[in-house]
Design brief:
The protein is an alpha/beta fold. The protein folds into three domains: about 210 residues, 3-Layer(bba) Sandwich (FAD/NAD(P)-binding domain); about 200 residues, FAD/NAD(P)-binding domain; about 80 residues, Recoverin, domain 1. About 40% of the residues lie in helices and about 20% in strands. The protein has 21 helices and 26 strands. A seven-stranded mixed beta sheet has the order 7-6-5-2-1-8-20. Helix 1 crosses helix 3 and helix 8 runs antiparallel to helix 9.
Length: about 575
């Protein structure tokens, strides 16, 4: 009866003072009534939480962080899981390898981003090792050092929506010895390891007991891969040696050699030919040995074996440090997931144009771990024709296409690319190419669009693509309620109505290639190419603006100023 009396007093308190917060009233109540009313208060809060959709984000790279920063709808409860509790600005990793920028200047703790959100968000430093789409769970294990006690902890996280943004790992192409003997350049830890190894090579080569041949081997730095990462690292290393280490180790500068190996015909083959030619010419002037048509077949602890395409012979190259900066591959957990959902023959996860993993409606994949499987026009040609042919006459006039032209171009982006290639103003201009364009039947329609699918291209695995995908998906999540009521996407050619959202479209904003010596090459939209010292300042400005916080902007800019004033730090820390 005493507990019941306490409950009555608590109830009167709520009625007499409705303006007081519940928790304040609770602490004015004594006895068993406190526990009773307190339970009710927290039960109500729990029911509110249950209404929120649980979003689990795997990864804190470009895609995952962009999604997290742009997600604003408070109706979601977000759980971020990653073995790294920070976001790294990876385009500046080559600068970290030589001390131009300090490692901590390019990283932002993920909890700094989470604490600014206006919804429930939490972070778990752990590694996802299995995805269970049947029960909507991700299985995780901790990554903290074992000396903390307790061993590896395993746990599961439930989700309503899963965002896979785990990035990719370096691809060795099953080349023997790469994992054991080469350095990669994918993570901050990789850059720090390279920096220490470079200094180790110089310190060891300076010992009096080292022979001249051995000194040459130790100071031979080999970079595998002529893409942006490999080229920028080779340029950074050359500047580090020329501007800083040559002054500290004057007796060793004559032994230093930097070699860049590329299996193709040219370096930077994704850039304009003018940039490629300038880069190759500059590397030649700087003394960087460029070997194209050289495919690495084996890496030992002291030598690299390459197969020369021009002669077919195998050449052995002694080296002191090897940096593997070519190719990306899927992580083991992603490969296991692909087998689970029947995508065994693919290199990365396949998604639709809305970034949903094929076969999993509530699972999304972004960034380097996925690619958009664009639907071909010829696969849907009959359905497209029938959507336009509302009268079922079997033939179409120009006016019949008016209502579906925009939807066709939006649903199949290769159509726009084909029109630009053929220098056609619009879709109507393509139809006018028909011999008898007054009426077009299905066979003529197929003939007109037969070459359109040749313009289908996979998006590059770059930070720019991943960031745009994360921002796009967050915008879809923010507007899901509105778009459910009023869909804004193109027609569903294989169904009825419209898609809820516009499909993802990548907008290329340009790309940079720092070439050392305060010179950078830039290829910007509109086929605009700029090379030289002025472009270096543009590179500084763009990269500083793209950093995720004012904290990292200040740190990176101060590092650039420090390097200009005092040089790069050669301490082995």
């Amino acid at each position: 009866m005493r507990g019941y009396s306490s409950f009555q007093r608590a109830s009167r308190a709520f009625n007499d003072y409705p303006h007081l917060p519940k928790l304040l009233v609770l602490f004015t109540v004594s006895g068993g009534g406190l526990a009773t009313v307190c339970h009710t208060a927290f039960a109500d809060a729990g029911q509110d939480d249950l209404k929120k959709k649980k979003v689990v984000v795997l990864g804190t790279g470009w895609a995952g962080t962009s999604f997290l920063k742009n997600l604003k709808d408070p109706s979601y409860s977000v759980q971020v899981v990653s073995p790294r509790n920070y976001f790294a600005f990876t385009p500046l990793l080559p600068s970290v390898t030589c001390g131009t920028i300090e490692a901590r200047s390019i990283v932002e703790p993920i909890r700094n981003i989470i604490k600014k959100k206006n919804f429930d968000a939490d972070f778990k430093e752990a590694e996802c090792y299995r995805i269970d789409t049947v029960n909507k769970k991700v299985h995780c294990k901790t990554t903290q050092p074992s000396h903390l006690g307790g061993g590896i902890e395993e746990f599961t996280v439930d989700y309503d929506y899963l965002v896979i943004a785990m990035g990719a790992r370096a691809n060795t192409f099953n080349t023997p010895g790469v994992v054991e003997n080469a350095h990669f350049l994918k993570e901050v830890e990789d850059a720090q390891r390279i920096r220490r190894t470079v200094l180790d090579c110089f310190e060891r080569a300076s010992l009096p007991s080292i022979s001249e041949d051995e000194r040459k081997r130790i100071l031979h730095f080999v970079v595998v891969g002529g893409g942006p990462a490999g080229v920028e690292f080779a340029a950074e290393l050359h500047d580090f040696v020329k501007e800083d280490l040559a002054k500290l180790y004057p007796a060793l500068k004559q032994y230093v050699k930097i070699t860049l190996l590329e299996a193709g015909d040219h370096i930077l083959n994704m850039f304009d030919q003018r940039i490629t030619a300038f880069a190759e010419e500059k590397f030649g002037r700087d003394g960087i040995v460029l070997k194209t048509g050289s495919m690495v077949v084996k890496v030992s602890d002291r030598e690299i074996s390459t197969k020369e395409r021009s002669t077919g012979q195998t050449v052995t190259i002694p080296y002191g440090m090897c940096v593997w900066a070519t190719g990306i591959g899927s992580r083991p957990v992603v490969m296991d997931f692909m087998k689970q959902i029947g995508q065994t023959n693919r290199r990365v996860l396949a998604t639709d144009e809305w970034l949903r993993v094929e076969g999993c409606n509530e699972v999304y994949a972004l960034g380097d771990c996925a690619t958009i499987n664009q639907r071909s026009v010829m696969e849907d040609i009959a359905i497209i024709f029938s959507k336009a042919d509302k009268n079922n006459s079997g033939t179409l006039r120009m006016d019949d296409f008016k209502e579906v032209i925009q939807d066709i171009c939006e649903r199949y982006p290769q159509v726009d690319l084909y029109l630009k290639k053929k220098q056609l103003k619009n879709f109507n201009a393509l139809l006018m190419n028909s011999e008898d364009h007054a009426e077009i039947n299905i066979e003529k329609f197929k003939k007109l669009l037969a070459e359109v699918d040749s313009q289908m291209k996979n998006l590059p695995a770059t930070a720019q693509v991943a960031a745009q995908q994360g921002s796009y998906l967050a915008d879809c999540f923010n507007r899901v309620t509105v778009c459910e009521a009023t869909p804004e996407g193109p027609l569903r050619f294989r169904g009825t109505g419209r898609h809820r959202f516009h499909p993802f479209r990548y907008r290329h904003l340009g790309q940079f290639a720092p070439l050392g010596g305060e010179q950078t090459a830039a290829q910007l939209p509109g086929d605009w190419v700029s090379i030289g010292h002025s472009t270096q300042w543009l590179w500084y400005s763009v990269y500083a603006s793209k950093l995720v916080s004012w904290r990292t902007r200040v740190l990176v800019v101060s590092d650039w100023i420090r390097r200009s004033a005092f040089g790069r730090d050669s301490s082995r820390i």
